[in-house]
Amino acid sequence: MGPGGDRAMILEEREETLLLRDLVSIYSPSGREARIARYLYEKMSSDFSFDSVKLDNVGNVIGIYEGEEPTVLLCGHMDTVPGRLPVRISNGMLHGRGAVDAKGSLAALMMAAHHLRISGYVGRLIVAGVVDEEGRGTGAKHIVRSRVGADYAIFGEPSGLTQVTIGYKGRIQLKITVETEGFHASSPWLGKSALQHSLDIWRMISEYVERDRRESRFDSLSSCVTMLHSGIATNVASPNCTFVVDMRVPPRLHAYEVVNDIVTAIKGYVESSDERFDVRVVPEEVTEAFTAGRSSPVVSALSAAILKVTGSRARLVRKTGTGDMNILGFSLSIPTATYGPGDPKLSHTSREVIRLDEYLTSIRVLEEAIRILYSRSR
Questions:
Q1: Would residue 133 show up in a list of annotated catalytic residues for this protein?
Q2: Are 358 and 375 in contact (CB under 8 A)?
Q3: Of 16, 101, 132, 133, which is the active-site residue?
Q4: Pick from 86, 78, 135, 133: which is nearest to 107 by CA?
Q5: Prior bond to 251 cis, omega within 30?
Q6: Catalytic site includes residue 352
Q7: For residue 165, pLDDT beyond 60
Q8: Which one is catalytic: 33, 79, 151, 352?
Q9: How do residues 47-83 score in pLDDT, each as one tens digit?
Q10: What is the per-residue pLDDT across 120-134, written as a single tens digit (0 to 9) for each?
Q11: Regarding beta strands 152-156 and 68-77, do their DSSP bridges make them parallel or antiparallel, or are they unpaired?
């Protein structure tokens, strides 16, 4: 039964809620998606009766409802950030890791496709549950290599019920390792430790970012140290230090050029020093920013669906984060947008919770948007 069915039915017992609860109950941080992938494979194959379902080489689950063109790709990610949270439903809210980011969106995409099929919709739909979105985008990159044939794409990430995400910043992940001679902590005049050099390098990066600052956070470059490991003993000046820098890049800049600027600055720092030390910079991820056109057919269809289902005008938003739309939007070169239930401010927090009525309504929005795309393509 679709979301527009019997409203007296208890929220907790609805098919849509049961799917979401099951997904959130399966702990699936990046790199550990095998169990949830198997669950989705079996669900798509049996209860949802997809015409074909496969687990690809990297662990993505791909289900296809065959039909007429256009083909709409509905893509959500199965992984979450690490950290278990208790799963519970109370007062119409579902709590748990991934409820917002982004199993609510993934479940909504799946349910929308299922509702459309059983209602007689004849268009072709591809539903993809991908791995490693919170990591290096392994799942999305494999979809690109597999050359999935689609005319439109909707990505599932929390935008809120009446908002459509049209832009994401790019992302750079730099792993920087500094090595130097260690010496007794009682003799700091002997030189700088690896940690001190690392702090100098981090200060250089921060100053580079600050020089580029704009009024808008979306249009500004940003940086954050996310991991750091240094030292071998409490009484030895650290001979080694490794830290990871996460940078978010606005569309007006090219991520690879930012990497080159940082590497050049670090090289200059090393060459200008009288001390002997080594620095290695490894760009572990470089993803360019992506912005969908406001007049994109997918943006237009989602906006029209939001107005029809909720009575509210859609708000188009740009996020300071990065998603699979960055990877697939560029590579597939098809109209796309991102949409899903949930408050994005709760992503990656210990307070992940989603309103079930919002989740159910988002399914109706997705169904309507896909119908609009089909009708406008005829």
A1: yes
A2: no
A3: 133
A4: 78
A5: no
A6: no
A7: yes
A8: 79
A9: 999 999 999 999 999 999 999 999 999 999 999 999 9
A10: 999 999 999 999 999
A11: parallel
